[in-house]
Design goal:
single chain, two-stranded parallel sheet, mainly alpha, 95 residues, elongated
């Protein structure tokens, strides 16, 4: 699950195979589920960190899009958590 912050409650709930099956429409058609735990959580900050660490492997156009996506996800994360946005000289960790 991708969300503003890592550790959404649904991830823990859906790690229970019985609860997960109950939430899937027509679950009687499933022969089996993947081995557990196969449901995880990734926060916006973690996604941005991964993309930026791997930026040397991307083309210039891809790096531009990644920078724009990172800016947008930082904005969404800060709005969701009601934390002030960092200034231009600050990173996600602060000054």
């Amino acid at each position: 699950m991708l969300s503003p912050t890592k550790g959404h409650r649904l991830v823990q709930e859906y790690r229970d195979p019985a609860r997960l099956r109950a939430a899937i429409p027509h679950n009687e058609n499933l022969t089996h589920l993947p081995r557990l735990p196969f449901i995880g959580s990734l926060g916006y900050a973690e996604l941005v960190s991964i993309l930026r660490r791997r930026s040397r492997f991307y083309s210039r156009a891809e790096r531009i899009v990644i920078d724009q996506l990172a800016t947008y996800l930082d904005y969404k994360r800060h709005r969701a958590t009601r934390r002030p946005l960092p200034t231009v000289n600050e990173g996600p960790e602060g000054p």
